[in-house]
Write a structure and sequence with these properties.
Elements lengths: L2 H19 L3 H10 L4 H10 L5 H28 L4 H50 L4 H11 L3 H14 L4 H11 L3 H16 L3 H59 L2
Helix pairs in contact: 4-5, 5-6, 5-10, 6-7, 7-8, 8-9, 9-10
Length: 265
């Protein structure tokens, strides 16, 4: 199939898709993005990374679709230039588009997982700093503001958000509750709930924070031990399937060589 025939065919296909969608395909695509079934799931993951607004979701989805479409068109043109069969070219381009689409989604999930591990690893130190600031006589809000301005990391950013929201007029416990909902972490959620209850009922906040700091340290220790156990199992794979067979081969090779010498006439 010649390129001179392919170009009009591609333009005709593009025109047919445009007519099938709408007179304005961009608005149709935006509407379909807004009605995505996985909107809540993707927005939840984006929210954990710092921005789960509708605009951020639509921007992420447009970028995902654009990269998938660009990859598909590139693969299709490359196969057609190489004079591959049309059906094979279309099938390969479609699979490439699906692969890129799923890969971008997996990358988002991987970023969220890394972010969660980062937050949970710095959580004990931040809580200890917070309890020390409260022990020095600062209020919960002023201690949170001090940590947000002096520390770095995801928890410090969330503390600054809480301080900004409270200064804008929202109650402290509601701002804390919003912060706890942004993290998919049981440890942080329990800390936020305990701090809200202690703040509303006038319970001793320092004891609550110290208990949560100890629990967070224990949870972090368990995560490190679990990761070490998984690493130990993965290290056994090259030992069993690579180093051990080579060691056995080196041990048996002299005997095999001598047997060959004796068996030779």
């Amino acid at each position: 199939m010649k390129i001179s025939i392919l170009i009009p065919a591609a333009l005709a296909l593009l025109g047919s898709v445009t007519l099938a969608l709408n007179s304005n395909p961009k608005s149709e695509i935006d509407q379909r993005i807004a009605l995505s079934k996985d909107r809540e799931t993707v927005q939840g993951r984006l929210r954990e990374l710092g921005d789960g607004s509708s605009e951020k979701f639509e921007e992420f989805r447009r970028r995902q679709l654009a990269r998938s479409l660009a990859t598909s068109i590139t693969m299709l043109l490359a196969f057609l230039i190489l004079r591959k069969p049309l059906l094979l070219s279309i099938l390969t381009a479609s699979l490439a588009a699906v692969f890129i689409y799923v890969l971008i989604d997996k990358q988002l999930s991987s970023r969220v997982k890394i972010h969660q591990l980062s937050v949970e690893s710095e959580f004990p130190a931040v809580i200890e700093m917070y309890s020390l600031a409260l022990s020095a006589g600062e209020t919960p809000l002023s201690a949170m503001e001090r940590i947000g301005n002096s520390a770095k990391g995801a928890m410090a950013i969330e503390f600054r958000k809480v301080v900004t929201v409270v200064k804008s007029g929202q109650p402290f416990h509601l701002a804390l509750d919003s912060m706890g909902r942004e993290f998919n972490s049981i440890t942080i959620r329990r800390f936020v709930d305990s701090l809200i209850i202690a703040t509303l009922r006038g319970a001793p906040v320092i004891e609550v924070l110290q208990r949560h700091a100890l629990e967070a340290r224990e949870a972090q220790r368990n995560r490190v031990l679990s990761a070490a156990a998984k690493a130990e199992i993965s290290m056994m794979i090259p030992v069993v399937f690579l180093i051990l067979p080579i060691s056995i081969l080196f041990a048996l090779w002299p005997s095999l060589a001598n047997l060959n010498l004796f068996s030779s006439p």
